[in-house]
Amino acid sequence: MSLEVKGKITKFLDVESVTSKASGNEWKKQSFIVETEEQYNNLYCFEVFGAEKVDNLTKFNKVGDVVNVQFNVNTNEWKGRYFTSLQSWRIEKADVSDSIEDNNFETIGNTDVPQNNGDLPF
Asked: Is 116 left (phi over 0), alpha (psi -120 to 50) or beta?
């Protein structure tokens, strides 16, 4: 299941590096906070995994950017406890032109258009 949230990046948390005990491979993870304009439940902590994704996160995104985050919800069980994370797999800059109010536009040209009292030319 894939979900999407639109909001503003408010913070990047520190990069975590861990070496796997089983395979000896190192992996990186970074979390970041996105705040939406919703009244309730408006704060999300997303994670990205892998060195390339961690590097690209701060390379292409900055605090204050409005983004669309596509993510999966992942839950793991460990010793009878359950841990849920929001794993982002795509981050795009949001189209902020939707929030521009109509009254910011000026009328250009001749505004003295004759009225036809409901008669249509076609």
From this structure: alpha
